[in-house]
Amino acid sequence: MLKKPHVPPAVALITILLASSGDSAIVIGHLPTQFDGVVVTRTEDVHYPPWTRTRARKYVIRESDGRERVYYADPSEGELDGFPIGATISKQRWHLD
Length: 97
Description:
This protein is α+β, with helices and mostly antiparallel strands. The chain contains 2 helices and 4 strands. It has one domain (9-91).
């Protein structure tokens, strides 16, 4: 009887992250992210992930306790032209809405 090869979940996740590019990388990056705060800076045309040619917007969100989080989003995400500086946004972990 042949045994099926077992791939540890961590190896599978790292492989997916390294092999992914474009929108799938942004979606994978969004899943564990959680924040609730105000957009304080916004940078256009950032490569995300850095080794690809995929363009994204980089947001820095300041939460009520003063912590700042970096959030990469597809250029079409948010309002018509993305989230403006000063916009209040929130994201729950494991949700894509």
